[in-house]
Amino acid sequence: MRCFIAIDFPEVIKEKIAEIQTLLSKAGADVTWVNPAHIHLTLYFFKELPVGKVELLYEKIKKEIQEQEAFELTLHGIGSFPPSPDDPRVIWIGIQGSLKLAGLYQKIQGVSQPFDEKRPKGERNGSFTPHATVGRVRSRKNLRPVKNLIEKFSSEPVGICPVDELIFFESRLSQKGPDYFKLHRIPLKHQHHI
Questions:
Q1: Residue 122 confidence (pLDDT)
Q2: Shortest CA distance to 31 belongs to which of 130, 134, 132?
Q3: CA nearest to 38, candidates 19, 13, 58, 75
Q4: Domains of the chain (ranges plus CATH)?
Q5: For 26-76, what is each residue's pLDDT tens digit?
Q6: pLDDT band, very low/low/confident/very high, at 13 (cuts 50, 70, 90)
Q7: Residues 6+ apart with CB under 8 A from 126
Q8: Pairwise CA distance, residues 108 & 61, whole Å
Q9: For every residue of the chain, which 3-state class applies, written as one string?
Q10: How far apart are CA 165 and CA 162, in angstroms?
Q11: Which of 34, 121, 147, 194, CA to CA, is 20 to 30 A from 135?
């Protein structure tokens, strides 16, 4: 199974992302825009997860993060990978999080790696740059105008996302692109204010 652990965004954030995509699409570049309903922050993606191990992995992750407190992320600014001005491939919205996000990622990565047998060892410890992919560039058509817009909105505030749960998704590929199905919700610990 193709599965991933992610933070889902609230509707108000997805609506703002849709507005940004509409603005960028006016440049007429050859970009496949991600359906805003599908946009999320992936913490770990499994290339091939044996079906029989999904429940075991879910339980292990749930146990590993049971003391992790809920927190907030700030979505802010538009950019592209690679950052070179000539040949961007991915258009993204930046995510500024507390240190809790990095700690959460490390915990999930630590628990998940033994289950991700198909991933080459060299890929297993890649650095984590939190971002939400909003578009994928298909060709160089009208790249300069879209690049200008990305620069113009490089510090655009998008919104604040409360993180009180993780979602264990399954990704199924279809002719229209990937469909995402929520398999499990993994709650984070709520802060108790005295």
A1: 46
A2: 134
A3: 13
A4: 3-187 (3.90.1140.10)
A5: 999 999 999 999 999 999 888 788 888 999 999 999 999 999 999 999 999
A6: very high
A7: none
A8: 6
A9: CCEEEEEECCHHHHHHHHHHHHHHHCCCCCEEECCHHHCEEEEEEECCCCHHHHHHHHHHHHHHCCCCECEEEEEEEEEEECCCCCCCCEEEEEEEECHHHHHHHHHHHHHHHHHCCCCCHHHCCCCCCCEEEEEEECCCCCHHHHHHHHHHCCCCEEEEEEECEEEEEEEEEECCEEEEEEEEEEECECCCCC
A10: 9
A11: 121
CA distance 18 to 36: 6
pLDDT per position as a tens digit, 62-110? 999 999 999 999 999 999 988 666 778 999 999 987 788 988 999 998 9
Count of C-beta atoms within a 10 Å radius of residue 51: 8
Q: What are the two backbone dihedrals, phi and then psi, of residue 33, each rounded to the nearest 5 degrees?
A: -85, 135
Cα-based distances in Å from 97 to 129, 149, 172, 191: 11, 24, 29, 17
